[in-house]
Design a protein that fits this description.
The complex is a heterodimer. By secondary structure, chain A is of the alpha/beta class. In chain A, 35% of the residues lie in helices and 17% in strands. Classes of the chains: A alpha/beta, B alpha/beta.
Chain lengths: 381, 178
Amino acid sequence: MKKSTKNRLNAIVYGMDNRSREALKMAFDGPGKGCCSLSDDVAADIAIINIDGVDARDILQKIRQEYPQRHTIVLSVNDPQIEDTHYVARPICMKTMVSVIEKVRQLPPLEPKPIAVESSGETEKKKRPQEVTEPTSNADVSAPPKARVQIPKIDFSQPALQGTYCYDPDNYLQGGITKAIKQAAKKNTAVQISIRVGGEWKMITILPESKKVLTSINSTLLKRLCTSPAYTLEMKIRYHNKKNSFDLEYRATEKKAGIPVDAFLWRVAFWASQGRVPSKTDLKTPVYLKQWPNFTRLKTLPNSMRIVTLLIDKPRELPLISQVLGIPYKDVFALYSAANAVGLAGPAHRKVDTLIQPEPPKPHRLHGLFGKILDKFKGSE
Amino acid sequence: MSNHKIIFTGPVGVGKTTAISSISDSPVVKTDEHASDMTQDHKQETTVAMDYGVMVLGDNERIHLYGTPGQERFNFMWDILTQGGIGLVLLLDNTRADPFHDMDFFLDAFKTFIAENKVAIGITKTDISPFPTLEKYHEKMKAHGINPPLFEVDARESKDISKLVEALLFSLDPWLGE
C-alpha cells in the first residue's frame, strides 16, 4: 500500500457521486482536521464505501479480495454488521469519522481470510464497538444514494422577495374558478366560465351536484391560461338555468363525462402558483395537511409523497421541509398551494407562543430496499 | 437472498388477486375454489388460502406479495401471513353494502401489525359506485386514530397499485428518493 505523508491517511472512496466526494473531501480538510485525504489510488491506506449504494456489497467483496489486509470504513443509514469493517452512520458526523480514522491508524493490518459479505437478514449480529453517535447539523456531510442538496436559507420576509415566492390566486384564473365553484354550490346550479382565446370562446362548466367540471380546453391551453395574469384574459361568468343544469349533470353522471372538481382545481392551483405560495401565507407559521391527497387521480408533483409524509406526521414550516428533505422550495410551495386550494392544507394554530420544530422521522431500517422497489416502479412506467 | 413481504387484504371480491397480478413479476399463484357461501353472489370462485406474487428487485432480493383470503373464517391465516411483513395494503370495495364496516373490521383485525408498520388503503370500483366519497372514508378513519394514504384505485391498473405501494413505502420512510 502507498505510504501516507505525515500522519494523513489516504482513502479511496466507493459508492459516492462527485458531489458527495467533494463534500467529504472538504469535510476532511475542515472539521476533519486533515486526518485523511481522498485518493484515486486503488492501493490507498484505507477504503471508505457507501454500502447503501447499488452493487456496493459486490464492490466491497471485490476490494477486500484484492486488498485483504486493508481496513474498510462502511457508511450506511443502519449498521450493516459486516465483519472486519468499521461502521460510520450516514449522515456522517465528522467527529465520529475522525475518531474511527484515528482508531484505524493505530490498528495493525488485517489478517487475510476468506471474505463473506452477507445481507443483514441472514447473519447473526456480531458484536462490534459502537462507533455511531447522533449526527450534528453543523458537521453533517450527507451522502444518501442521491446526494442531498443543501438548500440555502432565505429570509422570506424581505419585501423584495414577495413577488418571487408569493402570488395572489385572485390575480389568476384560479381566483375566478374558485369563486365559480363556491357560487355553483351556493346556488345549486351549474356555473359556466367563458374565456376568449384567439377569437373563440372556450368554456369551463362547474357542476355542483356531481362535483365535476366539464371543459373542452386541453391541458396545454389550460396551463397557459392558468399562468397568465387574469387581467390579460377576457372572461364571462354565467349561471345555467335549472333545465340546462340538469342536462349537464346527467351528462356528467350517466355518460361519465368531466373531471372531479378537486382534481381540476388542484391542477389549476399548481400551475397558477408556479412554485409560489398564496400571498396570505406566513412562511414562519407551521402548516398542517389534513389527509393524504388522492394521488392516483391528481397531477403528481415532484417530491410530493416525501413532503406529504412530513406534513401528515406533524405541522411544519414549509421552508424547513425544503431544507430537511433537500428539495427545492418551489416543490414544497407548489404542493402546498395545490393542497390549500382544495381545502386540504392551511396554517396550523399554535397552542403555545414558541413552537419547537418537530424532529423529522428517521430513515427506515429497510431504506435501501424501499429505494429499489421505487426504482422498479419507475422502470415500468 | 433477502426476502420481504407486503400483505394485501380486504373483503371478498375487492380485487386483491387482481391487484397483486398487476404488479407481480410472475403469474400469481391463486388458491381458488368454487364459492359455496354468499360469496357466490359476488363471484364464482374465491381465494381459500392466499394469493402469492413476487416482485424481483435483483439477484438477491424479492418482495413477496401475499393476498389474504377475504372470508372471516380464514382469519387464522392473517396472523401467519403478516409475520415479517413490511406493510399492509387494505383494499375496500365501494360497491359493497357497508364499506365502512369493512374498513373498521380490517383495521381492527390488523391493528397490532399496523401500529408497528403502516397501512395504505385503496378504494376500488369507484367508477361503478362513486359513493361513499373519499372524504367520508377519511372522516370515519379518525375513529381509528390513523391518517394513512387513501386513494381511489383500479385494481387492474398497475400504475394505481404501484402508486399505493409507493405511498405505503414513503409513509414508512420519507427519505426515499423520487
